[in-house]
């Protein structure tokens, strides 16, 4: 086993050095591409060449499509292919480190557990990273859904008071500048920047809907674009109907969160209950034996 681990370590290290020499500055443009959670960019560049030349994307198209779609929802359509490639490089870099680390551990200690655990984690960790990415997308969608009824209520009040739709949206965005990290208001800020950059109201709103990639936002966008020219009572009435529907959706999400929170408490309560039984029952059993 030690000989096998030595061969694995040499092959993986030599392969990385060879790919490092081959790729050169091929992926230098990706080094400054903003993307959260990437810690091994320096290690992943040679592996990116292996992913690209080995056509890994074509081997698992369904998985790669889901990963790219999730990245598009978080970061937008621009550079989505590059970010997918970076994430693949990051995942395979962790796998490379775990296999080499497990092999070295087995080589120095003589225990088979090192290479076994390293190989197991090399498979599990990339799957966990993909699962975490999808979880971030679901959390982002839920945050948008929870905040959208509040935005609609503000728009209804402002438009009902005589403001135009554009000015009402600007007031809502300017009033939440301190909360620009929220995905909904971050996308609204981009939409107002599109207006200033020369996009029409309709184009900017459609781009906003595509970036959010949430069905309820698409319904909101359609309602606004169909009714904003008419304004007045018709527009306010359509927004109120939509707001009522979104509040019901928000209540359903809140109930789901409450149920999830209560289910997470079940295991700690069971553990505490067992500990109490042991603490109370042990002295009683000892007294019976005496």
UniProtKB/TrEMBL annotation:
One Gene Ontology cellular component annotation held by this UniProt entry: plasma membrane
Membrane-protein topology: Multi-pass membrane protein
Residues passing through the membrane, by range: 85-108, 114-133, 265-288
Main location: membrane
Pfam families named in the record: T2SSF
Keywords (A to Z) from UniProt: Cell membrane, Membrane, Transmembrane, Transmembrane helix
Domain of life: Bacteria
Keyword RNA-binding belongs to the record: no
Domain Type II secretion system protein GspF: 152-283
Location of this chain's protein in the cell: Cell membrane
Protein name: Type II secretion protein F
Organism from which the protein derives: Paenibacillus borealis
Lineage, uppermost ranks: Bacteria, Bacillati, Bacillota, Bacilli, Bacillales
């Amino acid at each position: 086993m030690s000989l096998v681990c030595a061969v694995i370590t040499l092959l993986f290290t030599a392969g990385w050095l060879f790919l490092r020499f081959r790729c050169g500055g091929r992926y230098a443009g990706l080094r400054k591409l903003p993307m959260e959670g990437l810690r091994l960019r320096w290690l992943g560049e040679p592996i990116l060449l292996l992913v690209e030349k080995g056509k890994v994307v074509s081997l698992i198209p369904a998985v790669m499509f889901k990963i790219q779609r999730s990245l598009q929802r978080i970061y937008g359509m621009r550079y989505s292919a590059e970010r997918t490639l970076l994430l693949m490089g990051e995942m395979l870099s962790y796998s490379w480190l775990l296999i080499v680390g497990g092999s070295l551990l087995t080589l120095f200690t003589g225990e088979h557990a090192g290479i076994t655990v390293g190989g197991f984690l090399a498979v599990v960790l990339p799957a966990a990273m993909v699962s975490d990415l999808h979880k971030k997308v679901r959390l982002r969608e839920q945050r948008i859904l929870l905040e959208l009824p509040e935005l609609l209520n503000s728009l209804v009040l402002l438009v009902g008071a005589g403001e135009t739709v554009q000015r009402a949206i600007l007031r809502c965005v300017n009033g939440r500048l301190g909360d620009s990290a929220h995905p909904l208001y971050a996308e609204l800020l981009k939409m107002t920047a599109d207006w200033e950059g020369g996009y029409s109201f309709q184009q900017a709103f459609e781009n906003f809907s595509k970036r959010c990639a949430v069905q309820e936002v698409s319904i909101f966008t359609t309602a606004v674009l169909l009714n904003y020219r008419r304004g007045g009572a018709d527009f306010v009435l359509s927004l109120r109907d939509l707001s009522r529907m979104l509040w019901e959706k928000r209540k359903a999400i809140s109930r789901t969160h409450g149920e999830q929170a209560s289910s997470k408490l079940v295991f700690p309560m069971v553990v505490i209950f067992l500990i109490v039984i042991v603490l109370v029952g042990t002295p009683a059993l000892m007294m019976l034996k005496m």
